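Dear colleague,

Thank you for sharing your sequence with our group. We've completed the structure prediction you requested, and as agreed, I am returning the results in plain text so they can be pasted directly into your records. Please verify that the sequence below matches your submission; if there's any discrepancy, let me know and we will rerun it promptly.
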Amino acid sequence: MEKSLFEQMGGTYRQGGDYLLPNLTVPESVPVGIWGRRRKRYLREHREPLYTALLFSGKLDAHIMDVDQQAQEMFSQLIEQVATQEEITEHLKAENQRGWIGRMNNIRSQVEEIIFNEYIYH
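Please find the predicted structure tokens below.
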């Protein structure tokens, strides 16, 4: 007995006029942090073929979660290291809160640039 056209094609299909249309679903995205969302947006806007390949292979969420985790760990480590190197302490925070905030914001900006170049834009 010969297989019907539906059975030969595999998957499930619906009739759309004269055509058989596949019943496709996109898997639910997993919640990720800011670095994962930035990487995903970068891939979607600037590296569309890679984004599409990861999406259709089912590897996009794992990639995004991995980048998010690595970038967050690196961000925290670098903030701490640079603050220590520049002697930005809790004592400084107590004495000159405005100065402490300015210096920490400067460090944060520097570290964000490193994270963007190492994890988001590569």
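Summary note from our side: The helical segments are 5-9, 34-46, 48-57, 60-85, 90-95, 97-120.

Kind regards,
the structure core
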